[in-house]
Structures are given as C-alpha cells and as structure tokens.
Amino acid sequence: MRLLLIGGALTLPACGGGRRLVTEVRASADANENSAVPVALVVTNESELSRRLGEMSAEQWFAFREQIQRDYPDEKTLFVAYWELVPGQEALIVEHRVPRARYAWVFADYEAQGEHRSAVPLRPALRVELNQTGFEADPLSRRGRRELERARAQGRDDKEDRR
Question: Please, are residues 98 and 35 in contact by the beta-carbon 8 Å criterion?
C-alpha cells in the first residue's frame, strides 16, 4: 500500500525543551468505509488552545487548522503532523520532537458523523488505529516505544515528515 502524506509536520529540531514521541498509525481494511482517512496529531502546551481543541470536532479542526497554525506560529507552543492513510495500509511509524505537554490531540476526518477527536495522555509513544467509522488512540510506555523503534528499524516506517 502506498502512503499518502499531506501537509507534513512542523518539527522542533532546535527545541531542546521538547520531548521525543514515536507514533504508529495504521488503517484497517475497511477504514472510513473504504475511503482514505486524513489524520492530524496536535500537541500544544498552551492551555487556552488545548481547551479550544477539546471543544472541536475533527471537521472543525480540518476547517480551521491553517488559521490556528497562523495564530500559534511558535514551534515551542504548537506541533502538528498530518497523514492520510488508505484502508488496509500497513503501519506508519514516525518519530517527532514535540512540546512538553500533558496531552496529544488526535483528529481523524471520517465520512461518518461524530466528533472523531481524542485527547491522549502524552507518553513516549502513541498508537492510532483507524477503523470503519472511528478510531482508537492509546498512549504506550517506554517499552512500547522501544518495540515501535525496533519495528521501524526493520523497515516498517517512514522518515520523519517535515514542513
């Protein structure tokens, strides 16, 4: 399966205060009722923005994301990564430097009605599973991150995407 990347990711290569986050994203064979799924991973350490994100649906995030990124241009405040996965796509494993924060927000733009937003405690690794009409996002421990890094080293990955 071919990976479709959209937008890329805003990364923090010079930000010493950031933390490493390894993310695995995979799509089931019937994901989004057999349509590609746009996904956004958003990390912020700004409390007002985090509150706003918690009130947005995925549809709203994708409609207003460009303005939000213009409103918060500081790399130490806002990190955003985008992917678009096709149904049945093998796991994509990427590593990022993200701001120190308590939560990561995941938005998936499904055809089905719903918020399609999840706040996930920020841990060393994150797994996102895209299903037929929704998704699951779960934090992983350091051990989980090591397992993802081993899988990445064996070729189940993509280079860190950058914008």
Answer: no
Do 15 and 101 touch, CB atoms closer than 8 A? no
pLDDT at 17: 60
Locus of tokens 């499904």: 110
Distance CA 89, CA 26 (A): 6
Cβ atoms of 125 and 22 closer than 8 Å: yes
How high is the pLDDT of residue 12? 35
- pLDDT more than 90, % of the chain: 65
Dihedral sign, Cα of residue 96, residue 97, residue 99, residue 100: positive
CATH number for 19-153 (one of 2.60.40.4150, 1.10.287.1770, 3.30.300.30, 3.40.50.12160): it is 2.60.40.4150
Q: Which ranges of the chain have pLDDT less than 50?
A: 1-16, 157-163
The Cα–Cα gap between 50 and 48 comes to: 5
Q: What confidence score (pLDDT) does residue 140 get?
A: 86
Partners of residue 138 on adjacent β-strands: 127
Burial per residue of 123-141, b for 16 or more beta-carbon CB atoms within 10 angstroms, e otherwise = bbbbbbbbbeebbebebbe
* Amino acid letter, 29: A
Q: What is the pTM of this model?
A: 0.81
